[in-house]
């Protein structure tokens, strides 16, 4: 059977499962809608959190990025996993004990202030919408590559599916769908990884094969890492495993980036909200462990995939004539994600350091003498002739390794599962921020259960429409704004949540001043460097990493201002003490 | 807060500080600050610093959370604040 038919089967089957689960777990009250009734077992919550967290970017793009970045890919690997340690030790148990529905709930109550609640909910909405736009685009791209539909049609199909199961089942529907989506995405990621590891090193475990010796070919018996280092240097790149060098990020920048991603992870509302759904504090601690375990399965496989893909790509494409280039190369050329410009006219593909030409490929529509698609871009001075989009590394992997059609289809279903699970988690944060935090807690405290539930569903619909709009008309700045999402998570939520638990003396004035200065600095820096073309002026730290500095600023300002103003009222100090003791968490209560 | 609950909280904070020190050591110290000297050491095909940055630190992170879970479950029982 063809790839196309297999893809219809795989995607149809998995979507059918998601919809069936959503129908089985439809809800009738706000507790079910916001926190899945608060009775999700830790193992299931760990699976759901892992799917929620791992987005289209983790599944599709991360291994490709690492493949091109070498050692410095560690910022994503450590940054996006290390945050769970902070989350598990410093936040999850206490927020669960506090036991409301959302992050702004905690901020508003702990700092006895509507202003703090509103700042928190604006951040939550902004972070989530930024993120979800990228997910919808990811859905569209996977659809268009594998099902041959237009990207926009793909986005619309994705919108319907998400709206159906998020609107119907709320958090409960999302939770159980995410469990199924985790299973789909991890199988889809592991099968090609294991097959490629077997093929290159003869070792079925990618995490070990990555450090093993090459099984066959002219490099047989050599360590993969060493071969990769040698090939990279021969072609003019830095050594794959070397840390800091010319053209790479500085140690300080890598440090700041890793910290910003870690703290940003711990401050992202769609991840934190998942710890409200378990029955008690002990379950919150345990489910954080399960979540990271399930995430680690993908995150330790990704660098192995990155190494194999780089080796495979260079071996099968570099210094090979176009006529002998493998079929995946020509398939992906059609999508515009791979291009070759025969600068020296020898008919051989030369892959070297540097850009092949300026910008992303603009095809003229004509074919060259060897059948390659001609590009109109202006060539650069570098000897490099090959353009490869980093995002294809995971998607093209099964083709590179000549795996059967059903595996390729499975990878498509996995990419969709990763994108849809994250999108639904984010949409719920937007819906709950508006219907619970803004409407019920600030505007109308008399709202009935029924009207709040209805508003929650309407808000999911509105958020889906906004996300879909940005998916179809991606603003040019989506990639830039993701930095902003993490920066905001790091510089706004994390410090005041941590201080809220660990420092009784933190008060309203401190929290508001801290959040505003942290966010203000981070936003200013990102806007200056990303949009206004200003050079990174703070010790050369890149805008993606500046959230780490914003976080420190928030901590300092909150502490200083709290010290200078009156301590929080006695009942708040009691609230903090009760949050520190696990007993009595009970159900997530709405007072 | 009753006296024994103060003790409970201090023990909790101490566990956290010890575990977060390990977290900092394997990621920021081994994976970033000392990556170059550690890369001189090889384990199989892996330079050690590179291994910590791309694999090792993640394994340690997972273990840390489960250790915290076990320590706290025991502490909760000892101070009778468990559920």
Layout of SSEs?
The complex is a heterodimer of chains A (591) and B (83).
Chain A: H1 3-24, H2 30-35, H3 42-53, H4 56-69, H5 74-98, H6 103-110, H7 114-147, H8 151-201, H9 206-209, H10 224-234, H11 251-266, H12 269-272, H13 281-317, E1 320-321, H14 327-334, E2 338-340, E3 348-349, E4 363-367, E5 373-375, E6 386-388, H15 392-400, H16 405-443, H17 449-472, H18 478-502, H19 508-531, H20 547-564, H21 570-580
Antiparallel strand pairs in A: 1-3, 2-6, 4-5
Chain B: H1 3-33, H2 35-39, E1 42-43, E2 46-47, H3 48-78
Antiparallel strand pairs in B: 1-2
What does this entry show, briefly?
The complex is a heterodimer of chains A (591) and B (83). Chain A has 591 residues and is mainly alpha-helical.
Strand content of chain B: under 5%
**Mean pLDDT of chain A, nearest integer?**
87
Arithmetic mean of pLDDT of chain B: 93
- Report strand % of chain A: under 5%
Q: Spell the H/E element sequence of chain A.
A: HHHHHHHHHHHHHEHEEEEEHHHHHHH
According to CATH, what is the class of chain A?
Mainly Alpha
Counting DSSP E segments of at least 2 residues, the number of strands of chain A comes to 6
The domain count of chain A comes to 1
Widest β-sheet, arrangement of strands of chain B: 1-2
The proportion of residues forming helix of chain B, as a percent range, comes to over 70%
Taken together, the total number of domains of chain B comes to: 1
Biggest sheet statistics of chain A: 2 strands, antiparallel
Enumerate the spans of chain A where pLDDT stays under 50 for 5 or more consecutive residues: none
Helix/strand-derived category of chain A reads mainly alpha
Note the main sheet of chain B: 2 strands, antiparallel
InterPro entries (chain B): Na_symporter_ssu (IPR019886)
Domain Sodium symporter small subunit (chain B): 7-82
Keywords (chain B): Membrane, Transmembrane, Transmembrane helix
Organism (chain B): Oceanidesulfovibrio indonesiensis
